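hi! just following up on the protien thing from before. the input was this:
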Amino acid sequence: MTHRFRDLLALEPLSADELTFLLDQAKPFQEIQRHPLKKLATLRGKTVALAFFENSTRTRISFGTAASRLGADTMNLQAEASSLKKGESLLDTVYTLNAMKPDCLVMRHASSGACDFVARHLDTPVINAGDGTHEHPSQGLLDALTIRDRKGSIENLNVAILGDISHSRVARSNIHLLGKFGCRFTLCGPAMWVPRELEEIDRGVSIRRVFRVDEALEGADVVLVLRVQTERLHEPALSASDYILLYQLNADRLRRAKPDAVVLHPGPMNRGIEITPEVADGPQSCVLEQVTNGIAVRMALLYLLTVGAPEEGAHPAAEAQASPHNRRATDVKDPSHASR
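and the predicted 3d structure came back as:
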């Protein structure tokens, strides 16, 4: 079934069928990342506006790379250069961008609901690249795609989320998405970062709070480690050494999870604070896979919101997969075919 999307502002209102469709649309783009020829002409002649009113490196580069690999041009607005610093309103800034006639607007903002506000005033499709503590939809999708690759399914998993959940839009998007597939969540961190209301963040989803990492990790299929803002680690409330002692994910603690549990981190990582290098670089870590899958997910979103999925016909990534250049390169580089 084909679904149509006007904007992508949040995962909470989407159904399990719509979320599965988005993940399935990303899969062919995922294959493209493995080929020498990654460039498509799908969005040739289109322009994607990247409006980042909050500082970002990974997400901005990922969306920019996704647009480039689809053949689109990009226009960039970054927080430090924004006219907002000169007193211009958010809406006036966005209206100015819109007057340049982009075909899609990717927006990040420090205020929850800012992307929804802008989308209600524009005809241009808007993709939320993170708004305040509300949601980070593309991160939730790339996390789900990564879990599905490693585990074979995203259904009925035990998910432990560690860290500063109160301020995390990543945690919320993961709960909204994975909760629709029967996943159960254990939230763990300092009490001030795991308030009681988080147990009701998504009605009908099993969510519990605990304050001991060993208890949170028991029987976990997925461990999502959140970045800790170091400026929030200070005496006397909670020092960095306290956090390391009580909540850091290390190899000994990870053994309480299932043997095939996967470890996710949205980045950037504070190695030695929320996670140890041996875990971050270990066989259960999916950190680099998340980065690669982020490009595939964002290619799918830009494609779907800019031109829409065809009712029939091949996925646009099929043209690159069928390329003689890619077939020859794959045959040469894959030693598994040498003796067959």
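Residues 328-340 have pLDDT under 50 and may be disordered.
The longest strand covers residues 47-52.
cheers
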